[in-house]
Structure formats: structure tokens, C-alpha cells
């Protein structure tokens, strides 16, 4: 099993959205028996909570399923994860600092790095939490734009993994 974990700050907005969208891409590609997708936050403020209602509304309006409980990312998870996807540069820095080894730190990548149309200076998926609903819609657009490139990378890794 190839394991991917999306990580944002509180695990109630961006990372559960990315988890739902990417899980749908994985399933549509027929990889759902080979790829496990989940998410977590760098902090534990919302542990046990569901996704933000605005995240749920935007996902449901776009036809994505979600069933989410927030949790905090633990450094011990690096052992079982193949790819850790950070939603912004702050998460990237925090996760790489948590990584027990250089090999683990290399597993951490920015989501938007998989979007070929993303400008080099715009690496973050902005946090929509303190803003209006359209911030959540923008978040979904950015996640959707990066998902095909991420799927290509995961598909190639799974082939290598199972070869």
C-alpha cells in the first residue's frame, strides 16, 4: 500500500479538502486498492472535530464525498507514509523539521508543486478559515489543479513500489 497524507494547520479546511479530492482521483484511476489517502494538521486544536462546514459545503457542491475527523500529525507516522503533502510553505518547513531523518524530510512536498500552471512564487494554498466562502472555493480550485499532477507522480511511484 502506498500512503499519502495531506497536512495543513488544523486539519479542518485545506487538508481534508485535498484528501477528499485526491481520494476521488485515486478511485477514478482504479488505484484505491493500492493507495491510501488521509490528512492531518500540524496542530491539535481541532482534534476529533469534523471538517469546517464551509469545507463540507464546497466539497458537496462539487460532488465530493467526505467523512472526516481532525487529527494531529505525529512524527512517528513518517515510518509508514510514502508522501506527505504540505498545503503551504509553513507546513513544509514544520513537517521537515519534525522528520526524524533526511529521508523522511524528503517525503514532504508542497501540493502546488504538482500543478504545472502554478507560478513559482505562488506555492501556497491560502488558508480560507478566517475569510468568506469564496476562499474555500478558491482552495478547491487550487487543490483540483494540482491533483492530476500528483496522481501522475503517485501512479509512477505505485508502479515502482509494486514492481
Describe, in plain words, how this protein is organized in 3D:
With 163 residues, this protein is an alpha/beta fold. It has one domain (2-162): Response regulator (Rossmann fold), CATH 3.40.50. It contains 5 helices and 4 strands, in the order βαβαβααβα. A 4-stranded parallel β-sheet has the order 2-1-3-4. Helix 1 (14-28) crosses helix 5 (133-162). The two termini are 13 Å apart. The relative contact order is 0.21. This is protein-tyrosine-phosphatase.
Short description:
With 163 residues, this protein is of the alpha/beta class.
Q: Could you tell me how far the N terminus lies from the C terminus, measured between alpha carbons in angstroms?
A: 13 Å
Note the beta-strand portion.
Answer: 5-15%
Task: Report the CATH C-level class.
Answer: Alpha Beta
Cα Rg = 15 Å
Mean pLDDT: 96
| Strands side by side in the biggest sheet | 2-1-3-4
Which oligomeric state applies?
single chain
Q: In the residues, how many domains can be counted?
A: 1
CATH architecture: 3-Layer(aba) Sandwich
Q: Which fold name is given in CATH as the topology?
A: Rossmann fold
Largest sheet: 4 strands, parallel
InterPro entries: LMW_PTPase, Ptyr_pPase, Ptyr_pPase_sf, Tyr_phospatase_low_mol_wt
Domain Phosphotyrosine protein phosphatase I: 2-153
Organism: Streptomyces spororaveus
Protein name: protein-tyrosine-phosphatase
Amino acid at each position: 500500500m502506498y500512503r499519502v497524507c495531506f497536512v495543513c494547520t488544523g486539519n479542518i479546511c485545506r487538508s481534508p479538502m485535498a484528501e477528499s479530492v485526491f481520494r476521488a482521483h485515486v478511485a477514478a484511476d482504479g488505484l484505491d486498492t493500492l493507495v491510501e489517502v488521509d490528512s492531518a494538521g500540524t496542530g491539535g486544536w481541532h482534534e476529533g472535530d469534523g471538517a469546517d462546514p464551509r469545507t463540507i459545503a464546497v466539497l458537496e457542491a462539487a460532488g465530493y464525498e467526505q467523512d472526516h475527523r481532525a487529527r494531529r500529525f505525529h512524527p512517528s507516522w513518517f515510518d509508514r507514509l510514502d508522501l506527505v503533502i504540505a498545503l503551504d510553505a509553513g507546513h513544509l518547513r514544520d513537517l521537515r523539521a519534525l522528520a526524524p531523518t533526511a529521508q523522511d524530510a524528503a517525503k514532504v512536498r508542497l501540493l502546488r508543486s504538482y500543478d504545472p500552471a502554478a507560478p513559482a512564487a505562488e506555492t501556497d494554498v491560502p488558508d480560507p478559515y478566517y475569510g468568506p466562502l469564496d476562499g474555500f472555493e478558491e482552495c478547491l480550485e487550487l487543490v483540483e489543479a494540482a491533483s492530476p499532477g500528483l496522481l501522475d507522480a503517485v501512479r509512477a511511484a505505485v508502479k515502482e513500489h509494486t514492481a
